[in-house]
TrEMBL record:
<dbReference type="InterPro" id="IPR051207">
    <property type="entry name" value="ComplexI_NDUFA9_subunit"/>
</dbReference>
<dbReference type="InterPro" id="IPR001509">
    <property type="entry name" value="Epimerase_deHydtase"/>
</dbReference>
<comment type="similarity">
    <text>Belongs to the complex I NDUFA9 subunit family.</text>
</comment>
<protein>
    <recommendedName>
        <fullName>NADH dehydrogenase [ubiquinone] 1 alpha subcomplex subunit 9, mitochondrial</fullName>
    </recommendedName>
</protein>
<dbReference type="Pfam" id="PF01370">
    <property type="entry name" value="Epimerase"/>
</dbReference>
<comment type="subunit">
    <text>Complex I is composed of 45 different subunits. This a component of the hydrophobic protein fraction. Interacts with BLOC1S1. Interacts with SLC2A4. Interacts with CLOCK. Interacts with RAB5IF.</text>
</comment>
<dbReference type="InterPro" id="IPR036291">
    <property type="entry name" value="NAD(P)-bd_dom_sf"/>
</dbReference>
<feature type="domain" description="NAD-dependent epimerase/dehydratase">
    <location>
        <begin position="66"/>
        <end position="282"/>
    </location>
</feature>
<dbReference type="GO" id="GO:0005739">
    <property type="term" value="C:mitochondrion"/>
</dbReference>
<dbReference type="GO" id="GO:0044877">
    <property type="term" value="F:protein-containing complex binding"/>
</dbReference>
């Protein structure tokens, strides 16, 4: 049993220069408990640093990847895709491992490791990426708390991860920002504009300074299972029964939502892309929609149309809804679904720049909203257990597509 334990421990390699870090030198015993590989980024090379297998789950892709924020919506998709191609994964988390253990099934036996860490503890961050050659930072917050404001998570925390990754010799760092990140966000509802977007922009600057070759992704609103986009609009707290309050009825507000799995595929392709150091990718969907029309489409999919009482109206004309937002933010839970910051981001138009590449440049076949929304919203439909006859309901009319 002791010999078996030693062999299993040495299956996870120390780091080397190739696509993965090395473990044992050739003249060492295979099950030695004293590995002596070279540090990440060093000049040494050994057999353990080479790719093995045919490229499947039980192979080794040559990548040892640390994913910060793997427990989030995007993290689950990304870890699953990386595990399928034989990536060794280190998943740091500050929560109980009980909430992360399902991710161990994404990879082969022993290839997904859970490690404790704290974003303010540099030693725990360094231990989490000690043997990695790729680091992905997915950490982000929708709302501020007393211990972790936006500046601590999006700026200081991002800078720590980038700096320690450079000091550890990590070859590729992928950092997640936001599509509309800018230094001075234009205020729409909230005085001073979105602090979320401002902190994301500042986080980009400190990451590029700490790790000049960092790859930055700017995702739009992502939708999938357990997301913060579709589930936000179908929530009873966001609407008044079947009445949906939207700033200026959602007219003139442009959105370009993207399927979460497409973003995860783009990240995997970016890892193996050569010569893309320092690149900024815009993770946007294939089509642009007006926010009001997109919300109407969601409710048509759920069979909640004007005939059933659904109405989209101007939020500015409903002081009771605005009072509810203020009450929830003042006296509600510290992670409120409804807040001024969330409403500010919700009503900010997505702006994409032609000079930056998108997921299409990473050879991702993008998913259309019209192909995915009916499945994602299926269990929110009116009379969901009713089994209709063929052609009993008319085909749902898709939302109008805006020109680029």
């Amino acid at each position: 049993m002791a010999a078996l334990r030693i062999c299993l421990l040495t299956r996870f390699p120390k780091s080397g220069q190739g696509a993965i870090a090395g473990t044992l030198s050739v003249n060492q015993r295979q099950c030695s408990s004293q590995p002596s590989g070279t540090p990440v980024g060093g000049t040494g090379m050994n057999l353990a640093s080479l790719k093995r297998g045919t490229g499947g789950r039980s192979s080794f892709s040559g990548v040892v990847c640390t994913v910060f924020g793997a427990g989030g919506c995007l993290g689950r998709f990304l870890v699953n895709k990386l595990g399928k191609i034989g990536t060794q994964l280190i998943l740091p988390s500050r929560t109980d491992f009980y909430y992360m253990q399902r991710l161990k099934l994404c990879g082969d036996l022993g290839q997904v490791l859970l490690v404790p860490f704290d974003l303010k503890d540099e030693l725990s961050i360094a231990k989490a990426m000690k043997y990695s050659n790729v680091v992905i930072n997915l950490i982000g917050k929708d709302t501020e708390t007393s211990n972790y404001p936006f500046s601590e998570v999006h700026v200081k925390g991002a800078e720590r991860i980038a700096r320690i990754a450079r000091e550890s010799g990590v070859q590729k760092l992928i950092h997640f920002s936001a599509l509309n990140a800018t230094e001075n966000p234009k205020p729409i509802i909230k005085f001073g504009g979105s602090k979320f977007y401002a902190s994301k922009w500042l986080g980009e600057q400190v990451v590029k300074e700490a790790f000049p070759g960092a790859i930055i992704f700017r995702p739009a609103d992502m939708y999938s299972h357990e997301d913060h986009f579709l589930r936000y609009y179908v929530s009873k707290l966001r609407r008044n029964f079947l009445f949906m309050p939207v700033w200026k009825k959602g007219n003139g507000i442009v959105k370009q939502p993207v399927y979460t799995e497409d973003v995860a595929e783009g990240v995997v392709n970016a890892i193996f892309e050569e010569g893309n150091e320092g690149e900024i990718y815009q993770a946007i969907g294939p089509r642009r929609y007006e926010l009001g029309e997109l919300i109407d489409y969601m409710f048509r999919v759920m069979r909640r149309e004007k005939e059933t009482g659904y109405v989209r109206y101007d939020m500015r004309l409903d002081p009771f809804f605005l009072m509810r937002v203020q009450f929830i933010q003042t006296f509600g839970w510290k992670y409120p679904l409804l807040s001024w910051e969330r409403l500010e981001r919700e009503h900010t138009s997505d702006v994409a720049y032609y000079e930056y590449p998108t997921l299409r440049d990473l050879k991702v076949n993008l998913t259309y909203v019209e192909d995915r929304f009916p499945f994602e919203l299926k269990y929110f439909r009116e009379a969901a257990y009713f089994d209709p006859d063929i052609a009993q309901f008319e085909k749902v009319r898709p939302p109008p597509i805006l020109a680029d």
